[in-house]
Amino acid sequence: MNKFLRTLIPADIAKGLSITGKHFSQVFFTANRRKVPLHIVSEYPEVPAKVQPRFRGRLTLLKDEQGEIKCVCCLACEKICPTQVITIEKGKKEGRKMPFPVRYDFEMERCIFCEFCVESCGFDSIILNHQFELAAYNREDFSLGTEGLGQNMFEPSHAGKFSVADD
């Protein structure tokens, strides 16, 4: 009988199953009850998620201290984008010497989050924020811009406003 069990369940598999069972029972019987030194399960909706500092989330336009858009329409981000998801339309604004983006559109559904646009921007006017939950019900929610209802390039989108990780 002992020889039969050795051939049926090799020692390595039995050892691995015992370790897996021990960790499973540790997490299963202690989740949401007390803190465990090695807690494998993430309590995502209740506890904010932690992402790495170099995480690439959704594109965001930045503003300066006066509340003006930092972008000066150099079109470097539009030219370097491999999927051509950024569209900028230049314009002039009273009291501002530099060109002003009348329209700044970003098609998030085709973006590959390569961060070339951020690296090419010499004025630090765009960043990839830490918003990681980018699901939406409509395709229109993936088209972001500076104008229009729900097309806010300056804050997290409404689909993932609770999914911005703390820095």
TrEMBL record:
Subcellular location field: Cell membrane
Keyword check for Transcription regulation: no
Cofactor descriptive note: Binds 2 [4Fe-4S] clusters per subunit.
Membrane topology: Peripheral membrane protein
Main location: membrane
Highest taxon, organism lineage: Bacteria
SUPFAM superfamilies (alphabetical): 4Fe-4S ferredoxins
Chain residues that bind [4Fe-4S] cluster 2: 81, 111, 114, 117
HAMAP family: NDH1_NuoI
Main function: NDH-1 shuttles electrons from NADH, via FMN and iron-sulfur (Fe-S) centers, to quinones in the respiratory chain. The immediate electron acceptor for the enzyme in this species is believed to be ubiquinone. Couples the redox reaction to proton translocation (for every two electrons transferred, four hydrogen ions are translocated across the cytoplasmic membrane), and thus conserves the redox energy in a proton gradient.
PANTHER family: NADH DEHYDROGENASE UBIQUINONE IRON-SULFUR PROTEIN 8, MITOCHONDRIAL, NADH-QUINONE OXIDOREDUCTASE SUBUNIT I 2
Protein name: NADH-quinone oxidoreductase subunit I
